[in-house]
Amino acid sequence: MSTIAHEKYEAVIGLEVHAQLLTQSKAFAPVTTEYGGAPNTQVTPLCLGHPGTLPVVNENLVRYIIKMGLATKCDVAEKSIFARKNYFYPDLPKGYQISQYDTPICFDGFVDISLEEYDKRIGLTRIHMEEDAGKSIHDQDPYNTLVDLNRAGTPLIEIVSEPDLRTPQEAYAYLSKIKQIVQYLEICDGNMEEGSLRCDANVSVRPRGREKFGTRTELKNMNSFRNVERAIEYEIYRQIELIEDGGEVVQQTRLWDTAKMQTRPMRSKEEAHDYRYFPEPDLPPIIVTDEMLDEIREELPELADVRRKRFMEDFGMSEDDAVTITDSRYLADYYEEVVEHLGNPKAASNIVLSEVLRVLNEQSIDIREFSISAKRVSDLVKLKEDDKINSSAMQQIFNAMLDEDKEPEALAKEMNLIQVSDSGFLEPIVDEIIDNNPDEVARYKDGKKQLIGFFVGQAMKASRGKANPKLVKDLISKKLDD
């Protein structure tokens, strides 16, 4: 595909994101939603669609979706109803899914995304409640598809964007922002690999300048942010190439093949009438009162965008550092706890952005799994600020703290890393360094002041790294200048 051909067209992209909620029980049945249970052990007659069973709404399903709606500036409907979405599939034993259709609980919101070159606002058409289906497993038996119904009935929210996205990179940024918001709200863990955050993409292309949309395809089976980006990129080029060759795009659902790095047809795309929606007869409407809205609004945390600005204004943090630290609610909480104990925002950000993040990345863990408390990290930094240890010693002690639950100062003494700030101990070392390097002394006195680093380095080596480098530098400068 030539660049020229691509420049003739623009993509129109809308994302449908399903977020699996962190409720303790299913959407309409009192059974656990814990991940990892033995197949088909977390089910009830209601999950299986047995006659005579009646659903009951999980209150947290309603509260969590309202949180998401308020966080994304949606209008919240005073009254909304559930609907039955009818289709037949092996992992849907009831033959229908309880969802919402023409009366979603949240609508007309937006999400702001940031890319390197620009910022953009992406509209939200709706956020609605529904239950999950089960899971078909195709790779454990060479002859049969297996079905695990543990997931059936798990509460979901579906977040449907307006077709405002134009590039795969915008889609990636939007999906990242949705994940960040649901994690900040603590309503979803955002794990795409475990299926708790899933994304379908509707993609079409049109000649630049034309308002009418092209024929869209729906992309499924994308289990990571990067695969969402790759699948959309491939589909854009596939559609453009098809049109350029005189063909027509067919409306269909396509799967992303991670092995071949391409999309392939799955089925013709369903329309709303294919699902024969009708109001759920066994569930009453959801009524949201002003009191309920006010109560949930009070529970909302400070979201990442607001927190980032506060860190920049209150702590003098650079935008890049603020973006990194506030990307995770829990990392930002950890940082603020270090600041609280230490009283020095800059020193706190230095240790978190360097040593703490290094370990998190090396061990592929979340800050909640990190072994060193914010209090112990701040105590370590205080040793450096009090000139009891130097930078090299601080890193050595930090690494030791990963394995030993001891106080930083105790480790510093045990590792013989306490810095010497006794002039009586350091002066003989400094005198010896000066006496042993007459040529460098002469060059220093002739104006080569940068040689001070050489003398300090020699003194640190002679003291086996225990000398206070600031005091050493002051002693050497005084002797040489005199």
Q: Quick one: biggest sheet?
A: 9 strands, mixed
How far is it from the N-terminal to the C-terminal residue, by CA? 73 Å
Low-confidence stretches: none
Count the DSSP helices.
16
What would the principal axes of the Cα set say about the shape? Answer: elongated
Q: Roughly what is the average pLDDT, rounded to an integer?
A: 91
What fraction of residues sit in β-strands? 15-25%
GO molecular function, one term: glutaminyl-tRNA synthase (glutamine-hydrolyzing) activity
Catalytic activity: L-glutamyl-tRNA(Gln) + L-glutamine + ATP + H2O = L-glutaminyl-tRNA(Gln) + L-glutamate + ADP + phosphate + H(+); L-aspartyl-tRNA(Asn) + L-glutamine + ATP + H2O = L-asparaginyl-tRNA(Asn) + L-glutamate + ADP + phosphate + 2 H(+)
Family: Belongs to the GatB/GatE family. GatB subfamily.
Protein name: Aspartyl/glutamyl-tRNA(Asn/Gln) amidotransferase subunit B
Q: Layout of SSEs?
A:
Layout: H1 3-7, E1 9-20, H2 59-71, E2 75-76, E3 79-80, E4 83-86, E5 96-99, E6 106-114, E7 119-131, E8 135-137, E9 146-148, E10 155-161, H3 168-185, E11 197-207, E12 217-220, H4 225-244, E13 252-257, E14 262-268, E15 278-279, E16 286-287, H5 290-299, H6 304-315, H7 319-326, H8 329-342, H9 345-363, H10 374-385, H11 391-401, H12 408-414, H13 423-435, H14 438-445, H15 452-462, H16 469-481
Parallel strand pairs: 12-13
Antiparallel strand pairs: 1-10, 1-11, 2-6, 3-16, 4-5, 4-15, 6-7, 7-10, 8-9, 11-12, 13-14
Helix pairs in contact: 2-5, 3-4, 6-7, 8-9, 8-10, 10-11, 13-15, 13-16, 15-16
Catalytic activity: L-glutamyl-tRNA(Gln) + L-glutamine + ATP + H2O = L-glutaminyl-tRNA(Gln) + L-glutamate + ADP + phosphate + H(+); L-aspartyl-tRNA(Asn) + L-glutamine + ATP + H2O = L-asparaginyl-tRNA(Asn) + L-glutamate + ADP + phosphate + 2 H(+)
Protein name: Aspartyl/glutamyl-tRNA(Asn/Gln) amidotransferase subunit B
GO molecular function: ATP binding; glutaminyl-tRNA synthase (glutamine-hydrolyzing) activity
